[in-house]
C-alpha cells in the first residue's frame, strides 16, 4: 500500500511545433517514448465558401499544426440576429456569441469563463462546418452544467489560480467553421425557457476550439499552447514516468495493458499487495480478472500538457460513474482523438492538472487509462466535486440522458470495477462511507453512505451520468460482483 501512496516528483513541461505522426497502434508491444518529434508541415487551409471575414477571421483560418487550442473571446449579439452589435452593452449580459466564420481545423468545442465558481444560467448553441464537405451542421446544444466535475474545494488543484468555469465539451468532428450563441435564460413554467435580463452571463466568455492532433507528438507553440516549463527532454521524461507508473503491469512504453485470467490476476494481486496479503494470511481475494486497458501512450497523450507530479489518495473505496456529455456522434476509431481532446480541454482550457477521470470507456466497451499515476494505484482525480478522495471516476464517452448506453460499455464498467475495486477488497454490490469535502448535496465533513458503485448524481445534485446510464448501474454492480466470484 505504501507504494501506492508514493508520488513521482517533477514539474510540468513540454513544447515544440508538432507534425501529425502515425497514430499509435493499440498493441500490447512496448514502444520507445518520444524524444524529439518536430513539425515540418501543417494542416490544409479551411474549406472555401465562408462569408466575408475580417482580418482576425483570416488569421484564425490560417493553417496550423495538429494538436492545438484556439481560444476566441465572445462578442455581444443582437437579439434579432446572430451578428455583433455595436451598441449592445445592455444585451451583453444576456446574449453573446460569434458570427459565422472560418477558423483553423478543430474537432471539439467548449465555452469557458473567468470564475470557476460562477454558473452559466442559460443556453449554449453551436453550429459547425465540416472540413471535408463544407456543409454546415444544424444548431447543437452544449451542456452548460459542468462545475460538478471538478477537484475538491480548497485543494491545491482547485486553488492553483488557473482553474476556469466551463461547459462540458462537445465533439463535432473535423471542422473548419463555427458559429456560436450563448443566451442567458431561466426555466419557465411547463418546461419552457424564457429569456431574461438577469442573471448576467459570466465574465470572460471564450469559445475553445480543440484540435486533438494525431497523438504521440510534441506540442505546437503559441500563446495558448505554450508549455508550463521545460522542453522536449522534460516531456520525454514525463512520458517515461507515466509509463513507469504501470511498470508492475506492462513493459515501459506499452500501448496497452493486456487482460489476465482470474488465476493470473490473483497472482498479480499477491505481488502488488504482498504486505497486506501477508497480514491477512493470504486469504482468497475477491478480485475480477484484469481487463484490457489502453494506456495513455496507447491513446496518444501528450505528457507535456499535464502537471508532472502524481497525486494519490489513500485507497479506492468507491467508483463514481459519469458520462462526458460530449455527444454521441463519434465512432470507436475516433475514441483516442476524443480522449485527447477532452484531456486538452481539461488542462489547457479549464486549468486542471490532468484529465479529470481515472478511466474512460467508449461505446464499444474499450477501457482507457485516464489521469496519470498508474491504473492499479489510488490516483486522486477531479471527477466528483466533494468525493474525489478514496474514490475513482469512470466516464463513458457520450451523452446518456435520453440514449441508452451500449451493453459493451456497461460490461466494461463492470469489468474495470470488478478488478480495481477488488484490489482494494471492495464489494461492488456493497455500501461504503465517504467523507464529503463539500458539495451541493452534502456539507463538508459529513460521512455519507454510498453504493460502492455510484453514479455522479449520488454525490452531487446533477443529471450526470444521464438517466439512461444511471439506470444501468444496478446491472453493472451485479455483473462486477459475479466477475469477482461473489
TrEMBL record:
Domain N-acetylmuramoyl-L-alanine amidase intervals: 305-466
Stretches of the chain forming a coiled coil according to its record: none
SUPFAM superfamilies: N-acetylmuramoyl-L-alanine amidase-like (SSF55846)
Ranges of compositional bias, category Low complexity: 37-51, 85-94
Classification via Gene3D superfamilies: Peptidoglycan recognition protein-like
Stretch list, region Disordered: 37-96, 210-235
Limits of the Peptidoglycan recognition protein family domain: 291-439
Key words of the record: Signal
Xref: SMART domains: Ami_2, PGRP
Pfam family, one: Amidase_2
Family, similarity comment: Belongs to the N-acetylmuramoyl-L-alanine amidase 2 family.
The name this protein goes by in its record: Peptidoglycan recognition protein
Species of the source: Streptomyces purpurascens
